[in-house]
Amino acid sequence: MPLFFNPLEAAAHRLSIVPPMFDYFGALGLHAIIAAARTGIFDALSERPRTGGELATDLGLDPRRTEALLRALTGLGYLRARGGRYRLARTARLWLTTGSPTSLVAALEFWERTACVIWPRLEEAIRDGSPPTPFYALLESDPALARSFHAWTAALAGRQAAATARAVPVPRDAGHVLDVGGGHGLFSVELLRRHPGLRATVVDLPHGLESAADHPRLTLRPASFLEDDLGHGYDVVLLFNIVHGLSDEETARLFPRLAAALNPGGTIVVGDQFGDSLMPGRASRALLHLLDLNYLAAVGGRVRTFREVAALLRTAGFRRIRHRRPLGSPATELAVARTPTHPPPPRT
Ligand SMILES: C[S@@+](CC[C@H](N)C(=O)[O-])C[C@H]1O[C@@H](n2cnc3c(N)ncnc32)[C@H](O)[C@@H]1O
């Protein structure tokens, strides 16, 4: 929530004079922005400032409850109020209106379900280590959730793809990129824009490809990267935001298959959040640890450190492992590695 303590409030929290209510209220705040997005309040205010009464009439809402919601959203920092009229704060205009290129509105359902369906099972998982309901299998049987989840990953990628593509080392003579679990395909499309001689194949489950980008040099291949043949002869493999959803065993099985799919001297680029380096600062670290817990609760995965990813890559035969932090891509760092130019001779 775009809400900042004044010095008195900060002191009251630091000294524990007030109870730590922001976690409870954070959950309520999520429902407040969902209600405002779904009733059309954010979109209506993006056209022009209005009073609560005008909004209630225009959108067919209950006037008293609308006014209460508007006050709560103003308190949370999403709206500004002056002379009885409400207007959008910059953060709501950027992230919570449907017309914004950075809109997260389509992803609200995914977060609603994450908070209301997935996280309530956390206690059980912590007690007995019970595995989460397989998230991607759940998406297979729940098209609305799948659409919302993929809208979320596409929104994040849309913000970061250009910066990330600049940091991906594509050899001059590279011909073919494999984008493993590439879903929306936006990272591939950005690489295709930068490298006119390149083509790319996105492998993802059928629901992941439903709203994928369209590009003449982009092939969409519905398949499971855990079970199906991935082809071969690739110069670059992208593995973006995949490893955090896999167990060590799954990663240890996948990496050698990717090494085999690459040409000798080919490049693998693992894009993810790395626990040992991302986002300095106390609040950012708290978010990273919550994200780690979310991966655990949702997919049985976790945030790994760069060192852990590098060790898994090394075991799979990758060499020249480097760490890159693309500027302008705060949520994705890269582990870049190469397959040996000459594969080791077969053992006799
Ligand atoms: C967190 S999203 C990452 C999407 C994209 N790479 C990005 O970074 O924005 C994980 C993707 O992996 C796909 N996926 C998960 N399990 C898969 C599997 N076994 N085979 C193929 N795709 C899978 C999901 O459908 C989803 O698109």
Task: Supply database-style keywords.
2 domains, methyltransferase, 3-stranded antiparallel sheet, transferase, 348 residues, Rossmann fold, alpha/beta, binds S-adenosylmethionine, 7-stranded mixed sheet, 10 strands, Arc Repressor Mutant, subunit A, single chain
What does this structure look like?
The chain is an alpha/beta fold and 348 residues long. It has helices at 7-14, 22-39, 41-47, 52-59, 63-76, 90-95, 108-118, 122-128, 135-140, 143-167, 186-194, 206-209, 248-261, 282-299, 306-315, and strands spanning 50-51, 79-82, 85-88, 176-180, 199-204, 218-222, 234-240, 262-272, 319-324, 333-338. Strand 4 (176-180), helix 11 and strand 5 form a beta-alpha-beta unit. The longest helix is centred in the middle third of the chain and has 25 residues, at 143-167. It is globular and about 75 Å long. Bound molecules: S-adenosylmethionine. S-adenosylmethionine (SAM) binds next to helix 10 and strand 5. Residues 329-348 are annotated as: Disordered. Keywords: Methyltransferase, S-adenosyl-L-methionine, Transferase. Residues 176-319 form the O-methyltransferase C-terminal domain.
Question: Unreliable segments (pLDDT under 50, ≥5 consecutive)?
Answer: none
The assigned CATH architecture of the largest domain is: 3-Layer(aba) Sandwich
Helices, by number, come to 15
Whole-number total of structural domains:
2
Estimated helix fraction: 40-55%
Largest sheet: 7 strands, mixed
Heterogens = S-adenosylmethionine
Mean residue pLDDT: 93
CATH H-level homologous superfamily name of the largest domain: Vaccinia Virus protein VP39
What proportion of the residues form beta strands (DSSP E)? 15-25%
Compute the gyration radius: what is it?
A: 23 Å
